[in-house]
UniProtKB/TrEMBL annotation, chain A:
<comment type="subunit">
    <text>Heterotetramer of alpha and beta chains.</text>
</comment>
<dbReference type="Pfam" id="PF02780">
    <property type="entry name" value="Transketolase_C"/>
</dbReference>
<dbReference type="GO" id="GO:0007584">
    <property type="term" value="P:response to nutrient"/>
</dbReference>
<dbReference type="InterPro" id="IPR009014">
    <property type="entry name" value="Transketo_C/PFOR_II"/>
</dbReference>
<keyword id="KW-0809">Transit peptide</keyword>
<dbReference type="InterPro" id="IPR005475">
    <property type="entry name" value="Transketolase-like_Pyr-bd"/>
</dbReference>
<feature type="domain" description="Transketolase-like pyrimidine-binding">
    <location>
        <begin position="37"/>
        <end position="212"/>
    </location>
</feature>
<dbReference type="GO" id="GO:0003863">
    <property type="term" value="F:branched-chain 2-oxo acid dehydrogenase activity"/>
</dbReference>
<keyword id="KW-0560">Oxidoreductase</keyword>
UniProtKB/TrEMBL annotation, chain B:
<keyword id="KW-0786">Thiamine pyrophosphate</keyword>
<keyword id="KW-0670">Pyruvate</keyword>
<dbReference type="GO" id="GO:0006086">
    <property type="term" value="P:pyruvate decarboxylation to acetyl-CoA"/>
</dbReference>
<feature type="domain" description="Dehydrogenase E1 component">
    <location>
        <begin position="90"/>
        <end position="393"/>
    </location>
</feature>
<feature type="region of interest" description="Disordered">
    <location>
        <begin position="1"/>
        <end position="32"/>
    </location>
</feature>
<dbReference type="InterPro" id="IPR001017">
    <property type="entry name" value="DH_E1"/>
</dbReference>
<protein>
    <recommendedName>
        <fullName>Pyruvate dehydrogenase E1 component subunit alpha</fullName>
        <ecNumber>1.2.4.1</ecNumber>
    </recommendedName>
</protein>
<dbReference type="GO" id="GO:0004739">
    <property type="term" value="F:pyruvate dehydrogenase (acetyl-transferring) activity"/>
</dbReference>
<keyword id="KW-0560">Oxidoreductase</keyword>
Amino acid sequence: MAMALRKFGKDGISIWRRGFSTTAGLESSSSKDATPVNLFTAINQALHIALDSDPRSYVFGEDVSFGGVFRCTTGLAERFGRQRVFNTPLCEQGIAGFAIGLAALGNRAIAEIQFADYIFPAFDQLVNEAAKFRYRSGNEFNCGGLTIRSPYGAVGHGGHYHSQSPEAFFCHVPGLKVVIPRSPYQAKGLLLASIRDPNPVVFFEPKWLYRLAVEEVPDADYMLPLSQAEVIREGKDITLVGWGAQLSILEQACEDAEKEGISCELIDLRTLIPWDKETVEASVSKTGRLLVSHEAPVTGGFGAEISASIIERCFLRLEAPVARVCGLDTPFPLVYEPFYMPTKNKILDAIKSTVNY
Amino acid sequence: MAAFSAVKIPPPQFTTVRSSSQRPGSSPAHFAHSPSAFNSISFGSAKSVRSRPLFAVSSDVVSSDKTKPASSSSSNPAVTREVALELYEDMVLGRAFEDMCAQMYYRGKMFGFVHLYNGQEAVSTGFIKLLNQSDKVVSTYRDHVHALSKGVPSREVMAELFGKATGCCRGQGGSMHMFSAAHNVLGGFAFIGEGIPVATGAAFSAKYHHEVLKQSKPEGLDVTLAFFGDGTCNNGQFFECLNMAQLWKLPIIFVVENNLWAIGMSHLRATSDPEIWKKGPAFGMPGVHVDGMDVLKVREVAQEAIARARRGEGPTLVECETYRFRGHSLADPDELRKPDEKAHYAARDPIIALKKYIIEHGLASESELKSIDKKIDDVVEDAVEFADSSPLPPRTQLLENVFADPKGFGIGPDGKYRCEDPLFTQGTAQV
């Protein structure tokens, strides 16, 4: 079921065709050089292209040379050699700092943090060094070539340390960009854009979708713009905003809401900072209602920033308070994951109560 | 920059840290007549898959002299019958439990990330069976057997793995987070290296109680053992703690379970100097290397290290050369390790070796050992039944223990616990 989309952006309107990333079914391919692949293969393709197009780019992290625990880096070491694709010892702080150093001397350092839960030792380097490098050196140096890739998000059985969504911590840091794709096609384009962006980028990949999401992805080199949100479903009653794997849950909720006569507009933020306020504002100006959903705990999650900004801009237009359907304020649980997660039913209930406010 | 190619490392020089009983064919006191199982000196044969010869010795630590005579005759076993049977039973429990875990996992009773300890039992048994109840153990995600050796009942561990309310952490922790206040097991850490500073703090507390609060015990200071792997030895937290522990002479033993692999990363390719024991003397503490497939050797080293700590002489770094027979976790296809490396270590199975030792030294008969095997099988079966029949935790437990108030977020303005607020359940019409 392909949907025609319109992209609101500063550079005009273009039409995209896209199937739902949640369905494994494939529509007839709209471009002849595209193959249906899953998320880790799309990321792998992006990395191959990135290393191919720039001889001073490197991929490193824990276990990347055999292909990585999620197979995102298969074939890279064989093709580009172990001087460019190599394993690091188990030291996230070292990996991040080392990557910043490489980037500061004009290289493209694509570091992998094996799970987003392990990014916290690297947090110091990213916040205190990577984010401030250009600023405090007065543009003498910068680490724009830095890209940190990390799988994030719930996977069903991950428990406390293999399921966290730390994007909110990084969104609070001026100087970093945070990018989260929702599907294979988006992932390849956004990853190539992130690698080539002249700013340090933290790229979170929804690990739940590594094998589950299958989509037609062009074999060629292409990039998608950063800091531009995408309206993936049009509607007029309520705007839903999400990113990453949560979008597929939101889509299901939209379908269910449609059956009850509520027309939902769904926006994928894609880049969390700097985020595309104009697209969301335009949508809320149309619908008058907003719901944000993410897996991270609700208090202090990025939904709070979206809510506050939209209220500032659209206060008189809003018909109901901004709803946030997010994870609970507990550490990510083990057995209770289904209760913790912002499920389709929780979202549906929130949609209905917002519309009927 | 061939930073991580496998480098040939020349054999280490003997230093005062190590004992000098390196004569081929004899090993101090143990297993002298088991050439096939324990070629403990060097296997620099064609089949060797490590790029350096190993000197697996039961080493002395730098400050003490060798008080135990090196007895290499078979009529002088190193342990009593009771101790030998205790060690055997503990190792068999560890092995049988982990094998049952694998079965239960593939049947869907257990889920998540489960990391099994098969092959490394000698380290856990060798160290933990020397501890008192008030000594503390800190482990990693490969922690089931550490908890069992410390005395946590198999029922509780199995129930925790199944996620049931009767588990040792009430089902909250799962495989990677075994805690027990009664048995002083300070966890289970999914994140490598995170447990080592925690263990260091626990050791400080023990020393403080002993020296400042004067709550001394006749046997000496309470000891803390921190178990971790070879990959962790490249992590900053490890080095920070080595420094702190030696600086304040804490009663802690850093036990490195060097099984050569960190998921798929070979230790030899990830470490500039793969001899981890050397990192101890760099910080001023003794570093000892021991054959971790030989429970009696591990026990001998452990005895010395624990005695040092109890006397207040400070920390020790013990590197145990060991191997895991299964993959990193139950989700790991284990394709990267060469079959001859696996076969080499499978031939050094610590349980088989101890069994052989016991029989050769006449400490027990084959049938007695078999009856221990049977007893352990029953214990593990019982644990599974208990776990199966235990209830799942109630949904209200989700919001408990986030803060000190066991019910999570405290009491709301209406006088009821916030977590029992009906709005919590309203959003989940069907989960």
